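Slide 14.
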Amino acid sequence: MHRKIKIYIVTALILCALTACQNDDFKKYVENEKEYIARMNEESRVYFPHAVSSSYWTSSTSFWGWANFRWYVSFDNGLTNFMDEATTNYVRCVANPLAPVESVYYPIIDTGQNESYTGVWGEDSDYQNVPAKRSFADNGDGTVTDNVTGLLWSKCSMVAGNKIDVSLDCSGQPAKYTWADAGIACSSVSLAGRSWRLPTVAELSTLVHFGRKQPAIH
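Slide 15: predicted structure.
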């Protein structure tokens, strides 16, 4: 789809050069198409490459009275649930905030869903960038900053040996950990001069992209 649009724009620019672009509506159309492609390229960008389409541990414990159950986020489909802590899942770490925990606040961000599946006005896709547009920055040091929440994430998943994959494209082999070992692994990470921990279920859920699947992540 994007390739076709690019072809249309190239053709339009050629016509524009031949006709000196005297038509203001035509010039506006070309500019709108350029903006559309830029937006589509940004929406298709992956900030957490090679994330596993599976469950990732969070630090949150279950309130159901089952002492050994902990919450996870599935990046296969974006769902959250809980399971026995002895089960092994994948791990992504978040940096401890520089400010006191009590002062940390972040707004609710858009889900990323931009496709309509009902044909009825009022579904998620009809409200783009609501309440806040998603914005991430790859810091080039193995971390990714969420510009909306302010959270600093490990770009890659944990690999074996309580280590984070440090390859540029996160092409290392992600490893599974029990819940207790996942917390230990994150706390032992040395990355970007920050201290790290296992994220809460609310924090990890902010990385879910509801317009994607397998994996449903930015």
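Speaker note: The chain has four helices and ten strands.
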